[in-house]
Specification:
With 317 residues, the protein is an alpha/beta fold. It contains 13 helices and twelve strands.
């Protein structure tokens, strides 16, 4: 299969591109810069110059492909309406190129669109009051393409996609612990997060592309309910630091970012049983706590990356 991928040079995208190539697929990846093009070429993909704002480039990429994986997402998170408009326009443009063809189109969302405080399944509707509600409209647009002769599906990724070079949420906890001399969680720390190893996410996207039925919602969670306290305790053990409970307000100061404190206070477990059964997908790589122990989370490079992404922007704002 010839697959057109957007976001293939980001954090999770390279694993997906490499996994598709290893499985025998031909990959063309959207590249808005020379650096992105070089990264895609190193993974065995052919760069397609353009951006998610360039709708003509998206249509051309999709028209030439047997299937599409849409990973690219970003912009100014202070303006969620703009994020929504941009992503929906990109999905619609790709949909125009694929309409009536029966070709697969996999769009990325997140499990944080689900309702907090309970274990959510793939059949549960997204929650308009969730912290990731800005992703809901994109899900709806994608799933609606099933009525236009497209085998469209949505993969909701866990908030923690862990693995080498992770610059997501967990490195922010590590950076906060290093700065403060304590590893922290909020309240009793019993709140639960899903997690998935990047290589398991890659296999899920490949299987979704190959055989997910039209209109499918899939949960990218190798683990459905990792407590934040267990993560903080693992960080404390590795750094040889005490682990403490903080209030939400104290956590905002500890992490240097109120946004992070809010997210780390959420209880958002999910199930991926339906996804695993539907696609024959079995997560088989390291768990989050294992990855913290054996991965690259505590290297100088990881610390620098976390400081740059999570702390410096907040300090300068």
């Amino acid at each position: 299969m010839h697959v057109f991928v957007t976001g293939g040079s980001g954090q999770t995208g390279p694993a997906i591109v490499a996994g598709l190539v290893a499985a025998g697929h031909t990959v063309t990846g959207l590249a808005r810069s020379d650096a992105a093009a070089s990264r895609l070429e190193s993974l065995g993909a052919t760069p397609h110059r353009g951006s998610v704002e360039d709708l003509d480039s998206l249509r051309r990429g999709a028209e030439a492909a047997d299937g599409v994986v849409h990973m690219a997402y970003g912009g100014d998170y202070a303006d969620p309406d703009a994020l929504i408009r941009r992503d929906c326009a990109a999905i619609e443009a790709i949909g125009q190129a694929l309409a009536g063809s029966g070709r697969p189109f996999v769009v990325t969302s997140g499990t944080l669109v689900t309702r907090a405080g309970r274990v959510s399944t793939e059949q549960d509707a997204p929650d308009s009051d969730s912290v990731a509600a800005f992703r809901i409209r994109s899900e709806q647009v994608c799933l609606g393409l099933a009525d236009r002769g497209i085998r469209s599906s949505v993969v909701r990724l866990a908030p923690t996609v862990h693995g080498p070079g992770d610059y997501g949420f967990v490195p922010a906890l590590i950076a906060g612990a290093r700065r403060a001399g304590v590893s922290a969680y909020i309240g009793d720390g019993a709140n639960r997060w899903p997690a998935i190893h990047r290589f398991d996410a890659a296999s899920l996207f490949r299987l979704a592309l190959e055989k997910a039925p039209a209109g499918s919602v899939l949960h990218g969670a190798g683990e459905g309910a990792v407590t934040i306290k267990s993560v903080a305790e693992q960080i404390g053990r590795i750094l040889d630091l005490p682990t403490v409970s903080l209030t939400l307000e104290q956590a905002a100061e500890h992490l240097g970012n109120p946004f992070l404190a809010k997210y780390f206070s959420l209880d958002v477990p999910v199930s991926s049983e339906h996804t695993q059964s539907l696609l024959g997908w079995t997560p088989e790589h390291a768990t989050l706590l294992e990855d913290l122990r054996t991965g690259d989370y505590f290297t100088p490079e990881a610390s620098r990356r976390a400081e740059e992404i999570w702390l410096r922007p907040h300090t300068q704002s």
